# Entry
Amino acid sequence: MSLATLVGVGAALATTLAFVPQFFSLGRRGNTELSPWMLAIYLAGQALWLTHGLMIGSKPLIGANAASFILVSAVAIRRHMTGRARSRERLRIAIDMDEVMADALAEHLRRYNSAYGASVTAADLRGLHLEDWVPPAQREAVEAMYDASFFAALPVMQDCEEVVRDLAERHDVIVVTAAMDVPCSFDAKFQWLQRHFPFIPASNIVFCGDKGIVEADYLIDDRARHFARFTGSPLLFSAPHNATETRYPRVNSWREVRDYFAARENERETVRTHSRRLEDRKTAVPEC
# Structure
């Protein structure tokens, strides 16, 4: 065997074996991040090499590229099947930040009471925002309290970090915050999320004005106005200002959020089990 042939066979083997770890990683981690274009182009290249080998009668080219074409095709098929299974299992859950993940109201009340020597509590604001409750002469100053420093040290809602982390392990969690209402808050909100929820990637943090642009299965939000153009299922997170809202399903705490999605998952599992039983009955061979 000539040196050129050895080099060709070695290159073909390297190209072929490079896909073996990828093939098995699909099953272990549910990874579907392979580019479909990369796979399509690579398969086209392998098909051309195989054709070339057949045309010149080169057995090393024919054997190596035939094996590679079969293996890459298997990877492509498994990617497709894994992606479909994952899309059926995982939900896309969009979550608001202020007064859902972060206790913005507590900080707003603290600043207002400190500035005006008042003693307003959350219970006083049933059906109202603080800006609506204060005297008109104080309204502009109260709204100005939403500066960059306001969002830097907000406390996390009780049980929020634990529940969101659990949801993120089983579903695709997206933080959707209407930062356009307070443009100076972008950096502070991002830093706050990175500090308290480092497991949520930056690519899953959306700053927007209209949450109807977000495609998700669920939106957890304290402001009902964000549900108007949202195409998924709304879930109203209780806050004093939305106490009189009755149009949407409601959760009063993050423990209730956990229970809500646990119930949804149980329902989905029941449906899957029922479907499997129906399929088993259809394929069962009747006894003679």
Summary: The radius of gyration is 28 Å. Residues 127 and 242 are 5 Å apart (CA to CA). Residues 3-89 form a domain with the Monooxygenase fold (CATH 1.20.1280.290). The chain has two domains: 3-89, 93-102+153-263.
